[in-house]
């Protein structure tokens, strides 16, 4: 369609940089200078092999990543820079310079592998030549370089280079110069890039040609998936064999006019491509890792059915555009796998400022050497533009996703607790920042300069210590607050409410006993469970028993409080009917120690289901229940948590009474936002009171129909609580899920009555916050409760110029009451780099965090703007980010090429997932409550959760040999990836599906389901039979391990191919077009490309 | 309608007709009276049966209802004692009586008595006034949205099921309730230093009234309120919880400085009226050293016929025995109490009813026999008395009206009939009819007749009631002046004297004691508030307005007995001259029984003579007043305060304040007598009072 139209001018986008790079470079080389390229190519081929060999070390990886090509591509220009960087890199590497650094591991491989092939020419040459060139250069090339850089990064790479260089040398020299020359022009300064590029673009096209030529060779080596199949000809990719299963897809044969594919992945030399004159639609990804991505990177496909995009002129074009080869576009799976392979093995050491941590999907250990672990804080970018102008230009939001109480893997130590005695923690007098490793001690240690506000403070005598020759305190390593990124202080009484140390918190269980709750069996189940669950309340450290006291309330239209004092023979029930003016009818005996009152509590829990067994009461209240819990905590003068188990819309006459206002007709109208807004302001007011009391509310919903989650979740949301929803709860089906969530929720460690404050060094400021909390002013995040799963997302804005030398610091201080009633301060410090080059910014971004932020931003936006506006805003912002990169950082190339920054090459696919999510584009089966539920869930999700939530994990169960016990590699979330002879698991953190292909072997069916044929499998099954065979055990084990990874229990649903339920399942195949109108990945990419092009022109 | 009018009716035995002598309507005897004849008269027609009681069989009999409303802001031992008393009372109730329990402190709890296993109560905030409707809604007493058919009155049989949760037959929940009472804890809310406990009496009572109102309207029921201190929060609060602010005194009230009084009074009046309207009576058992707000709450008992008991602690025999006495039974095994009564007064045409004073409320029934002048609660010919016991009395005031065209026929008789409908404690409905007739006498020509028929005791009590009634709403001195004026006018009318010659003044025997009663009345706590707290005044007035004549007279003029070796016990003058060293005095003021040992006797006792066999007579002397006091204690309700004191003892003040101060520090030496004990007071003595009275009576100026 449009694509086509547009296509001609700027057709496909090749993404994989690697590939492109190669091309580009070539092109560059060629154009600008003499056609070095050709030579280079020739050389390449030659070299390639050589390289490959040479880089033996990295090699292993390299090959696969063959993406190498990119490197090469990038190279031209990048190459140099890259090199430059490398050079630096070497030096820096140690420290971890830019992004690359982080990925070093990954890179290396690349370097070796990829570089060899593609890069060889440009990269090598250029780099060397210019090596030393200014950083600027590098910057420009950044994207490209990245790939290049990466490779080189490690020393070994160096070696690898060596060879290439040599090879290249001859020709290389020229190119280099040429390149440089060209750059310089463009360069002006780093900024110059922009200019440079434009100019370059044209050449790019030509490049493709060359590239194409390359490709073949390249392909020979690695498999470069190129997708470019530019549509021009309308040819389809089909041609190219899809040799590589993983990512690599076959390149589009003919179609690829442009040299789109770079990597000539599968051997197939795509000559046609070369024809490339076509404006190659190559997407260049600047993705650095040429190698890795290499394969994926290029997608130069046209925009096939971009129709969906709202903005796009959807009309299908006459020209049957060729589909963009899905294998050629960046694959999340590949990125994740690569990161795992490259960075999973070594611990991530936080000592150096501005390092990009491994992806959330990678398992890695963290060593705290002065910066907070990425488990606590993740940023959208670890390199902050020095000026707000730059930041505005890039449009990359500067945000940090902070999980202050994150749970750590057992191998990592939880933060040290520092006790400064009565004097309390040492703080800056002016800005009140807490002592941290970044504070500078001066005057022989008698004073220290605050790293946030530069104020000079006296060091109290008891804290004095001499400095060593480097100006460091000699006790720096003995004091957590001087050497670690995260630690805790014991708070003094000054940090406590009313200047009184807090009492231990309390848990109050508030159970709906109306007709619905009784009938579904919920009450009986819950009471039974509580009897044992209460023995597992969170306790601190090695405490023998939990300090937490418990209380019980049941309610329907009225509330029933229970006196469970240990001295009573029987519990006493106190009914409060005055729901209009709620109060707590008893003090003594309501909140009790579990052990002391064991007998009475057990008796109570036995009796509750009996007492209400015959209830006819269907109406419930809600706000008064929360009010009651809050008042109870107030009366007991402690913080705590309410566990509310609620079934229906609170229609009984009482404050907070709600009416059914669900109206699907509002969808896609300006009034749609009202569906997300609370019906009444009463709940906000209530929440405010709760927060003031440190009363956190966890809500378990068991609705059979509309309950107005949007309103009911207001209080949990503002008090840092969680909402769980079990639609149409039935004990048989949902018991496991509910109980598991409940156990986890009750047992998890929570901080109460917390206040969080984020301080930053001069120049940036925290301006916006997302998450489950309440704010009374613009700086203090108040959390009635905060658990280890909840995050607070903070957005920063410039209010002054930053400088590269000092970087940017942030300190997140969380004052909270532990579950034993101890008042503590948890401090997380993080130092970021600052950059004057946009390329540095793009090189040090983290797409997962970015998506996390953007999703939260968008989900908040739906409260005030029409959903369509929100979606358009997202698309626009994304396009701006990418366009800015393209304009300022990417090597010059054809306008038809889509060039994505390496770090952001998944941005389109992930963003598309966000856009298609239930909140922003609901399908017909999605209820208003579901949307509100998801909306508030996402608000406090961490990066790992949003990652899998938006892009579900799809695991083939029967592909790998049964004996293989490791988790099978995931496949992309697309129907095309499903083979009807296999079984797959799909999970997104909330749902778990087991998809069974129609032609799965009988043996497999038998061993997994215990039935003899596919047709006998019960669709919708939620529990797999426990069978004594390897496959069954393996699958069960896998399911268990998946569940263990997520904060909520995922109920299993077995879906059979071609079954009714499959629709539901397909909803989660996010790369495909969705029934509700969501675009497929390919379409969206095309659309995005178009947007970018519009911005560029 | 007025069916049977005994001997005052004119009966035609042949025609089986009788003529009503109030309205002169001729009526047919009902079939049951078919057999009557001149020799076979029904009881109604026999002169000796001025009072006849009929048992009504129709209508559902409803059980007795007792709703305990218990303050839990008590000291531990007080609460324990109260709990025991309550548990004891359960055993005294008939098995089918319905009982309910409300406890209160900072909150109010209505206990549901029907549940097994887990004790359940409905809790209300103590600070919030609720309407009857709200209370019933919150207690789940309202019927679940059944469309109301206006034509069809609600079926009464639904009541038991609805109310069953809170009011249960004692035989069903005896054990339950006993346990529940046993487990009652003191109000658990902490009371900070310097504060009073928060006590929600106003709301508790409101809920009790609302509960009965919703479940058993127009059925006899007793709300028994036990309080150990003043209401300190919510509607009906009498004092704040700051201990440093004392509860209002008469001084504060006079200075208009009792900031909660009016509001609280209004609250309790509203409750009292609602309870009365539904035929429920409210008892107040207040045991505390300080005031408890009886002043504000008095209307609850006064309007509903409930008991008011005041004591120092629930852990005293005064309370325990008083409370026990409430459940005393007659020889038929029935409680000496009746419920939900209405009293109707009918008069022959020359008489009109001006009003009633006693534990009643007006039913606002106008009629031809209702006077336009109100005395007491007037403007009606019917009153409601929600709780009755054998001592309950009403003072009823009549007016003789001059019929312009029909002068009162000489020799004729005026008739009055009292018709009392009530629920007997056996749950029967009964009607008691008392008819009296009196001859007319002409005030001019037959003054002697009138004089001879004058009952000065009854007159004193009735006047006193009127005076006390006025004192509730008027300034003390005004009332005294009014009383004085009345007395003077009486003396002027019936005294024999020569104008302007006080010495000539004489009163006939039938009037002779009257001025003395008035003298003591003026000094009594019913009209004097000095030295009494507002609560005490209310308490005394309460009882004065309901006790029978004898008791009332004791209250006005306490009885003094003397015990000595000089002779058998004898009544002596209530005068300071009666206080002698070798006497033991026993004074009964109704509220107190004081045994006072004269100076010598006290010394003897201290010396222990009574323990010596040779002085056994002394021992007997000491014992005699104790025995007599026991006698009184046995029958008196409420239990009087029992005081054993001696010459010079601090509690002797109870005696000294009552006797006529014939000897004071002012006149002691002038009299030069050695007998008697001087009273340190500036009050006038009876002698002075009489002198003034005579002077004024004979004066022509008045």
From TrEMBL, chain A:
Keywords: Cytoplasm, Cytoplasmic vesicle, Endoplasmic reticulum, ER-Golgi transport, Membrane, Metal-binding, Phosphoprotein, Protein transport, Transport, Zinc
Domain of life of the organism encoding this protein: Eukaryota
Gene Ontology annotations for the cellular component aspect, listed alphabetically: COPII vesicle coat; cytosol; endoplasmic reticulum exit site; endoplasmic reticulum membrane
Domain (Gelsolin-like): residue spans on this chain: 964-1035
Coiled coil: none
Biased composition (Polar residues): 24-39, 90-101, 166-176, 202-216, 274-300
Compartments where located: Cytoplasm, Cytosol; Cytoplasmic vesicle, COPII-coated vesicle membrane; Endoplasmic reticulum membrane
Keyword Zinc attached: yes
Residue ranges annotated for the Sec23/Sec24 trunk domain, each copy included: 502-746
Occurrences of domain Sec23/Sec24 beta-sandwich (ranges): 751-834
Residues annotated as domain Sec23/Sec24 helical: 847-946
Composition-biased stretches (Low complexity): 59-77, 184-199
UniProt entry tagged with the keyword Protein transport: yes
CDD domains assigned to the protein according to its UniProt record, in alphabetical order: Sec24-like
Record-level GO BP terms: COPII-coated vesicle cargo loading; intracellular protein transport
Pfam family, one: Sec23_helical
Ranges for domain Zinc finger Sec23/Sec24-type: 425-463
Region (Disordered) location: 1-104, 148-330
Family to which this protein belongs: Belongs to the SEC23/SEC24 family. SEC24 subfamily.
Name the UniProt record assigns to this protein: Protein transport protein Sec24C isoform X2
Organism encoding this protein: Tursiops truncatus
Automatic annotation (TrEMBL), chain B:
Topology within the bilayer: Peripheral membrane protein
Recorded GO CC terms: COPII vesicle coat; cytosol; endoplasmic reticulum exit site; endoplasmic reticulum membrane
Domain called Gelsolin-like: residue spans: 569-655
Domain Zinc finger Sec23/Sec24-type: 9-33
Pfam family, one: zf-Sec23_Sec24
Highest taxon, organism lineage: Eukaryota
Compartments reported by the entry: Cytoplasmic vesicle, COPII-coated vesicle membrane; Endoplasmic reticulum membrane; Cytoplasm, Cytosol
Sec23/Sec24 beta-sandwich domain location: 338-441
Protein name as it appears in the record: Protein transport protein SEC23
Organism: Tursiops truncatus
Organism classification: Eukaryota, Metazoa, Chordata, Craniata, Vertebrata
Gene: SEC23B
């Amino acid at each position: 369609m449009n694509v086509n139209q547009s296509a001609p001018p700027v057709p496909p986008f090749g993404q994989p940089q690697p590939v492109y790079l190669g091309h580009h470079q070539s092109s560059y080389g060629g154009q600008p200078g003499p056609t070095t390229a050709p030579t280079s190519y020739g050389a390449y081929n030659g070299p390639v092999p050589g390289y490959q060999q040479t880089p033996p070390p990295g090699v292993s990886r390299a090959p696969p990543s063959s993406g190498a090509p990119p490197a090469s591509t990038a190279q031209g220009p990048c190459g140099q820079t890259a090199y430059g960087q490398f050079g630096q890199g070497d030096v820096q590497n140690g420290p971890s310079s830019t992004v690359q650094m982080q990925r070093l591991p990954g890179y290396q491989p690349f370097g070796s592998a990829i570089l060899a092939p593609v890069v060889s020419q440009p990269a090598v040459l250029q780099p060397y030549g210019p090596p030393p060139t200014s950083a600027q250069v590098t910057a420009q090339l950044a994207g490209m370089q990245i790939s290049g850089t990466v490779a080189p990064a490690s020393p070994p790479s160096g070696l690898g280079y060596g060879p290439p260089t040599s090879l290249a040398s001859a020709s290389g020299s020229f190119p280099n110069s040429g390149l440089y020359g060209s750059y310089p022009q463009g360069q002006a300064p780093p900024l110059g890039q922009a200019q440079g590029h434009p100019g370059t673009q044209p050449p790019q096209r030509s490049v493709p040609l060359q590239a194409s030529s390359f490709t073949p060779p390249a392909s020979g080596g690695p498999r470069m998936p190129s997708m470019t199949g530019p549509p021009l000809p309308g040819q389809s990719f089909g041609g190219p064999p899809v040799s590589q299963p993983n990512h690599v897809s076959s390149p589009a044969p003919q179609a690829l006019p442009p040299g789109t594919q770079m990597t000539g992945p599968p051997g197939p030399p795509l000559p046609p491509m070369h024809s490339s004159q076509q404006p190659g639609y190559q997407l260049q990804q600047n993705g650095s890792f040429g190698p890795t991505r290499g394969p994926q990177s290029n997608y130069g496909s046209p925009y096939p059915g971009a129709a969906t995009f709202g903005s796009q002129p959807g009309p299908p074009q006459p020209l049957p555009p060729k589909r963009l080869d899905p294998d050629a576009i960046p694959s999340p799976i590949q990125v994740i796998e690569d990161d795992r392979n490259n960075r999973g093995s070594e611990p991530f050491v936080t000592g150096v400022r501005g390092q990009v941590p491994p992806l959330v999907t990678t398992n890695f250990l963290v060593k705290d050497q002065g910066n907070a672990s990425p488990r606590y804080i993740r940023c959208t970018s670890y390199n902050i533009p020095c000026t707000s102008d730059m930041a505005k230009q890039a449009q990359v939001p500067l945000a940090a996703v902070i999980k202050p109480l994150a749970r750590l893997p057992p191998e990592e130590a939880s933060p040290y607790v520092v006790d400064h005695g009565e004097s309390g923690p040492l703080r800056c007098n002016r800005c009140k920042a807490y002592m941290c490793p970044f504070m500078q001690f001066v005057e022989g240690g008698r004073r220290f300069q605050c790293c946030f506000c530069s104020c000079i403070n006296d060091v109290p005598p008891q804290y004095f210590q001499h400095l060593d020759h480097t100006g460091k305190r000699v006790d720096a390593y003995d004091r957590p607050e001087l050497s670690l990124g995260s630690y805790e202080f014991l708070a003094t009484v000054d940090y406590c409410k009313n200047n009184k140390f807090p009492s231990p918190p309390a848990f109050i269980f508030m159970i709906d006993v109306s007709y619905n709750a009784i009938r579904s069996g919920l009450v009986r189940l819950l009471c039974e469970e509580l009897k044992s669950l209460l023995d597992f309340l969170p306790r601190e450290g090695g405490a023998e028993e939990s300090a937490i006291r418990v209380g019980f309330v049941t309610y329907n239209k009225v509330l029933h409080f229970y006196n469970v004092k240990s001295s009573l023979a029987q519990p006493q029930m106190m009914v409060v009917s005055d729901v209009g003016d709620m109060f707590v009818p008893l003090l003594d005996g309501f909140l009790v120690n579990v052990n002391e009152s064991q007998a009475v509590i057990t008796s109570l829990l036995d009796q509750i289901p009996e007492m209400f067994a015959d209830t006819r009461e269907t109406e419930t209240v809600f706000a008064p229940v929360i009010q009651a819990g809050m008042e109870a905590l107030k009366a007991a003068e402690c913080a705590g948590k309410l566990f509310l188990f609620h079934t229906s819309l609170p229609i009984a006459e009482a404050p907070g009474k709600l009416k059914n206002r669900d109206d699907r007709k509002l969808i896609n109208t300006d009034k749609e936002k009202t569906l997300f807004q609370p019906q009444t302001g009463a709940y906000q007011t209530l929440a405010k009171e709760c927060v003031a009391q440190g009363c956190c509310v966890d809500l378990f919903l068991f609705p059979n129909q509309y309950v107005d989650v949007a309103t009911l979740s207001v209080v949990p949301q503002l008090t840092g609580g969680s909402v769980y929803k079990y639609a149409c709860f039935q004990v048989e089906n949902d018991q496991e899920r509910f109980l598991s969530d409940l156990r986890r929720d009750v047992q998890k460690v929570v901080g109460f009555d917390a206040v969080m404050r984020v301080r930053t060094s001069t120049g940036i400021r925290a301006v916006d916050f997302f998450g489950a909390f309440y704010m009374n002013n613009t700086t203090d995040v108040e959390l009635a409760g905060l658990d280890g799963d909840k995050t607070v997302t903070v957005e920063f804005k410039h209010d002054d110029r930053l400088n590269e030398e000092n970087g940017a610091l942030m300190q997140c201080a969380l004052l909270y009451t532990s579950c034993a009633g101890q008042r503590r301060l948890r401090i997380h410090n993080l130092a970021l780099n600052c950059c004057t080059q946009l390329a540095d910014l793009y090189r040090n971004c983290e797409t997962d965090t970015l998506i996390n932020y953007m999703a939260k931003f968008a989900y908040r936006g739906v409260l005030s703007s029409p959903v369509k506006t929100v979606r358009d805003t997202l698309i626009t912002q994304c396009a701006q980010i990418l366009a800015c990169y393209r304009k300022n950082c990417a090597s010059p190339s054809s306008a038809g090429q889509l060039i994505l920054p390496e770090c952001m090459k998944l941005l389109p696919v992930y963003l598309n997932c966000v856009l298609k999510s239930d909140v922003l584009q609901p399908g017909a089966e999605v209820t208003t409550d579901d949307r509100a539920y998801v909306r508030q869930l996402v608000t406090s999700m961490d990066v790992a959760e949003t990652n899998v939530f938006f892009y579900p994990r799809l695991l083939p169960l029967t592909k790998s040999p049964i004996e293989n016990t490791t988790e099978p590699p995931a496949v992309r979330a697309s129907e095309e990836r499903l083979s009807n002879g296999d079984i797959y698991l799909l999970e997104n953190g909330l749902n778990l599906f087991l998809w069974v292909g129609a032609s799965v072997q009988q043996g497999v069916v038998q061993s997994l389901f215990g039935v003899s044929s596919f047709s006998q499998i019960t669709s919708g099954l939620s529990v797999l039979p426990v069978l004594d065979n390897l496959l069954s055990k393996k699958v069960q084990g896998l399911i268990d391990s998946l569940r263990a990874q997520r904060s909520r229990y995922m109920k299993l649903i077995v879906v059979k191919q071609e079954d009714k339920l499959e629709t539901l399942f397909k909803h989660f195949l996010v790369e495909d077009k969705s029934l509700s109108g969501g675009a497929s990945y390919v379409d969206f990419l095309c659309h995005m490309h178009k947007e970018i092009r519009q911005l560029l022109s | 309608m007025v069916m049977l009018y005994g001997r005052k009716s004119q009966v035609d035995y042949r025609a089986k007709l009788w003529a009503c002598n109030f309205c002169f309507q001729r009526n047919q005897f009902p079939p049951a009276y078919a057999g009557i004849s001149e020799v076979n008269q029904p009881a109604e027609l026999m002169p000796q049966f001025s009072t006849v009681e009929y048992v009504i069989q129709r209508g559902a009999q409803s059980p007795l209802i007792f709703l305990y409303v218990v303050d839990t802001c008590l000291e531990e031992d007080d609460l324990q004692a109260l709990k025991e008393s309550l548990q004891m009372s359960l055993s005294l109730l008939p098995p089918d009586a319905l009982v309910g329990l409300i406890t209160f402190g900072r909150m109010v709890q209505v206990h549901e008595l029907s549940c097994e296993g887990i004790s359940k109560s409905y809790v209300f905030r103590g600070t919030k006034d609720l309407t009857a409707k709200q209370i019933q809604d919150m207690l789940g007493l309202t019927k679940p949205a059944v469309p109301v058919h206006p034509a069809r009155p609600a079926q009464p049989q639904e009541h038991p099921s609805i109310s069953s949760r809170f009011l249960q037959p004692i035989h069903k929940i005896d054990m339950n309730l006993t346990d529940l009472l046993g487990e009652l804890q003191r109000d658990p809310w902490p009371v900070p230093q310097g504060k009073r406990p928060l006590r929600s009496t106003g709301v508790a009572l409101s809920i009790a009234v609302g509960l009965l109102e919703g479940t058993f309207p127009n059925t006899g029921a007793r709300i028994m309120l036990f309080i150990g201190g003043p209401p300190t929060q919510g509607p009906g609060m009498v004092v704040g919880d700051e201990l440093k602010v004392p509860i209002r005194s008469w001084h504060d009230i006079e200075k208009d400085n009792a900031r909660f009084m009016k509001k609280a009074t209004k609250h309790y009046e509203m409750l009292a009226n609602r309870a009365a309207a539904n035929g429920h009576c409210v008892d107040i058992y207040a045991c505390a050293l300080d005031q408890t707000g009886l002043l504000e709450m008095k209307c609850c008992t006064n309007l509903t016929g409930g008991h008011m008991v005041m004591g120092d602690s629930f852990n005293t025999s005064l309370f325990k025995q008083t409370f026990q006495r409430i459940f005393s039974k007659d020889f038929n095994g029935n409680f000496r109490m009746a419920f939900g009564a209405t009293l109707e007064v009918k008069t022959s045409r020359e008489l009109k009813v001006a009003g009633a004073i006693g534990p009643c409320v007006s039913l606002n029934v106008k009629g031809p026999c209702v006077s336009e002048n109100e005395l007491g609660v007037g403007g009606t010919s019917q009153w409601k008395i929600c709780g009755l016991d054998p001592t309950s009395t009403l003072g009823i005031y009549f007016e003789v009206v001059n019929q312009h065209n029909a002068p009162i026929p000489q020799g004729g008789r005026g008739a009055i009939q009292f018709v009392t409908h009530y629920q007997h404690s056996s749950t029967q409905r009964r009607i008691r009819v008392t008819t009296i007739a009196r001859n007319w006498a002409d005030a001019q020509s037959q003054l002697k007749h009138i004089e001879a028929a004058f009952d000065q005791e009854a007159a004193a009590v009735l006047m006193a009631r009127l005076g006390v009634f006025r004192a509730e709403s008027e300034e003390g001195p005004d009332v005294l002046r009014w009383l004085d004026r009345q007395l003077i006018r009486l003396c002027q009318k019936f005294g024999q004297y020569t104008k302007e010659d006080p010495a000539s003044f004489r009163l006939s025997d039938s009037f002779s004691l009257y001025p003395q009663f008035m003298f003591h009345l003026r000094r009594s706590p019913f009209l004097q508030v000095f030295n009494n707290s507002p609560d005490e005044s209310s308490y005394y007035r309460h009882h004065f307005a309901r006790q029978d004549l004898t008791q009332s007279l004791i209250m006005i003029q306490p009885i003094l007995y003397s015990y000595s070796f000089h002779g058998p016990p004898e009544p002596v003058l209530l005068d300071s001259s009666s206080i002698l060293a070798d006497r033991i005095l026993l004074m009964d003021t109704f509220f107190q029984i004081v045994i006072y040992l004269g100076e010598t006797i006290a010394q003897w006792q201290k010396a222990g003579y009574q323990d010596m066999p040779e002085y056994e007579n002394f021992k007997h002397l000491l014992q005699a007043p104790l025995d007599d006091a026991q006698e009184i204690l046995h029958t008196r309700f409420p239990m009087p305060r029992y005081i054993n004191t001696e010459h010079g003892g601090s509690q002797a003040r109870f005696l000294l304040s009552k006797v006529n101060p014939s000897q004071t520090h002012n006149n002691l030496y002038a009299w030069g007598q050695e007998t008697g004990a001087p009273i340190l007071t500036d009050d006038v003595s009876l002698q002075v009072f009489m002198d003034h009275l005579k002077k004024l009576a004979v004066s022509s100026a008045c």
